[in-house]
Amino acid sequence: xxxxxxxxxxxxxxxxxxxxxxxxxxxxxxxxxxxxxxxxxxxxxxxxxxxxxxxxxxxxxxxxxxxxxxxxxxxxxxxxxxxxxxxxxxxxxxxxxxxxxxxxxxxxxxxxxxxxxxxxxxxxxxxxxxxxxxxxxxxxxxxxxxxxxxxxxxxxxxxxxxxxxxxxxxxxxxxxxxxxxxxxxxxxxxxxxxxxxxxxxxxxxxxxxxxxxxxxxxxxxxxxxxxxxxxxxxxxxxxxxxxxxxxxxxxxxxxxxxxxxxxxxxxxxxxxxxxxxxxxxxxxxxxxxxxxxxxxxxxxxxxxxxxxxxxxxxxxxxxxxxxxxxxxxxxxxxxxxxxxxxxxxxxxxxxxx
Length: 353
Fold this sequence. Notes:
By secondary structure, this protein is of the alpha+beta class. The protein folds into 2 domains: 12-186, no CATH class; 191-350, no CATH class. It has 12 helices and 6 strands. Strands 5-4-3-6 form a 4-stranded mixed β-sheet, with helices on one face. Strand 1 and strand 2 (113-119) form a beta hairpin.
């Protein structure tokens, strides 16, 4: 998922105001509490894998940043429903004798000096996580209308101390969570979405408007035709039980139309960006084509398990995260997760003969 333009130093108030637009949950408190409790469990799970597998668990730090960020999101959502300021909660949590204040140069233009509050003593990781789990459990056991600011302060205190011993920064956690949630739930500005090839000549661009005809012959194989010319090879399902995979090129066409990215489509219509050797090799080459084909096969397999998304208007966030992992390092990883909801796929039709 793309990194968004957030300052290195981000205020709690700024985080709360920006993340509020991603809160689509019902006003009920219980689901938010369950979510918070679950994310704390995710923190513990990532820490457990780190202890058990050490350097082998290469996703340890990334997982912790994400789980801490999701916990912060739910804590913010909980405070919103209780009409309690998250900023006040963290201020009270770090105001005691357990914390020491140091001054630091700030990255916020309107405030050149920041006061950083740090726990005086560094607890063992297991102890800090146990306290965090206990604080989350205490919130879960309180009736909806009886959650006090003191209980939230206790959780925030354990949260900050767990952050410290886990080796991740609060700023990184907040920025990563904002980038993730805004990218998923907030429609992007269409004018800011990348096109990847606007600086190239027309013969090296994916067309702004195109019509591809997909036909099936009596042989059962599917064919693509563009401007009267057949593209690629005829396709069958290549599986014992027919499942329609012979039409999977529609995925590549959708990638081109919606994301303005598809190494496979570029190769089929011979619009690779050969004038730039580096782009041609890194973005339009064989590996990128294999990545897109593999991603398409995986999405199709998941779709089969979900009845091809019948009566569904969205996909799970876990699926979107896996897709982001697939394309990491390629130009399309600049597209936010919500990108596909804002671009329409025009000029595509299918027919059968």
